[in-house]
From TrEMBL:
GO cellular component, as recorded: Golgi membrane
MF terms (GO), sorted A to Z: glycosyltransferase activity
Name by which UniProt lists this protein: Hexosyltransferase
Broad class of the protein's primary localization: Golgi
Lineage, highest ranks first: Eukaryota, Viridiplantae, Streptophyta, Embryophyta, Tracheophyta
EC number, as in UniProt: 2.4.1.-
Transmembrane stretches, start-end: 39-57
The protein's required cofactors: Mn(2+)
Domain of life: Eukaryota
Membrane topology listed for this record: Single-pass type II membrane protein
Length: 353
């Protein structure tokens, strides 16, 4: 089989036709010298090169402080940035300016632990009580007031899991070593355990109250101001069964630290020997103190501590504590009376009556 070869030839130019332009053969094309017209076409390009390109190759005063070439445009758009706005970084060894001296906070006049006896299942009530106390103004005189929710042993795994969330979030839970109860020793377990649980940071006073009591902390602080720090028993007091001294109603009462220490120490054997931890807890506390001659500095705060009546119309402006708030309707009435919910700023996010 033969190999086919393709050959390209350069053809000769055909004879020129009359009135037709002739083109030179590629093999014979030569460069003609530029004409004056060509120089005229290049002149505008040269002028543009001189006016716009050559100045950009040399720094000018207007570009100082903008080495990247972008500062001039930005400055023109913003009205110009004087060089004095350039802030050099401080030297590495420069120390920050000294902070103005702050006045130390004054020491509190006294301290109070408020223990709210409740049950694990009452989570909604604890949320209400926490919020209500958090929104109260700080007490005057200045006092350290700590609020804790008090339980006996938590045996239900669901309650234990949910209560663990409260412990991690709020840190205001105390769980005692006792079976959950109301009148079978829980109050004694609480009062007697406090000196041991808080031995490193003792309080001047210890209060026991319930989760259906709204305590106005600032008003209670005013009552405690100037009171003795020892042998104190304060609350809503009344006589019972010919007792020589009144006992305090279970809605809430305060004892001094030494009385709580006695309950957990020297008085424990005597109280437990008589099996005096079972029964109405407020009556039992009054009985312990009367038999031992303790709590001789007694202060009756009624009528400023009281039960809310059925019609919810016996609120007092000088209230220290109001009791019998057994449902949300009664808590809401209490908040309205004491203006706890006042001052909410208007917003498109909520529409409240």
């Amino acid at each position: 089989m033969g190999i086919t070869t393709t050959t390209f030839y350069l053809s000769q130019a055909a004879p020129a036709r009359p009135h037709a332009r002739t083109y030179p053969s590629p093999a014979t094309t030569t460069m003609k010298p530029p004409t004056p017209t060509s120089y005229l076409l290049l002149a505008p390009l040269a002028i543009l090169l001189i006016v716009f390109v050559l100045p950009s190759l040399h720094p000018s005063p207007s570009r100082a402080g903008f080495p990247d070439g972008l500062g001039v445009l930005c400055a023109r758009r913003a009205g110009g940035f004087p060089d004095s706005l350039s802030v050099a970084p401080p030297p590495a060894d420069a120390s920050p300016p000294p902070e103005p001296p702050t006045q130390p906070e004054p020491e509190p006049e006294f301290s109070l632990l408020v223990g709210i006896l409740t049950m694990p299942s009452r989570r909604e009530r604890r949320d209400i009580v926490r919020t209500a106390y958090a929104l109260q103004p700080p007490p005057t005189p200045r006092a350290r007031v700590d609020v804790r929710f008090v339980f006996c042993n938590v045996t239900d795994p669901v309650d234990a899991a949910l209560l663990s969330l409260e412990i991690k979030r709020h840190g205001d839970i105390v769980v005692l070593s006792c079976a959950e109860n109301m009148n079978d020793g829980k109050t004694y377990a609480y009062l007697s355990a406090v000196p041991r649980l808080f031995a490193s940071t003792p309080y001047d006073y210890v209060m026991k109250t319930d989760d259906d009591t709204y305590l106005r902390v600032a008003e209670l602080a005013k009552e405690l101001r100037g009171k003795p720090r020892e042998d104190v028993y304060l609350g809503y007091g009344y006589a019972m069964g010919g007792q020589p001294m009144p006992f305090m109603h279970g809605m809430g009462y305060v004892v001094s630290w030494d009385v709580a220490s006695w309950l957990g120490g020297a008085g424990a054997a005597e109280i437990l020997a008589r099996n005096d931890t079972h029964g109405p807890e407020d009556l039992m506390v009054g009985k312990w103190l009367n038999l031992a001659g303790k709590g001789r500095n007694r202060y009756d705060l009624k009528p400023r501590m009281y039960d809310l009546n059925w019609d919810m119309d016996n609120f007092r402006p000088d209230t220290v504590a109001v009791h019998m708030l057994k449902d949300n309707r009664r808590w809401a009435a209490t908040f309205r009376y004491f203006n706890v919910t006042a001052g909410i700023q208007p917003s498109d996010l909520h529409h409240l009556p």
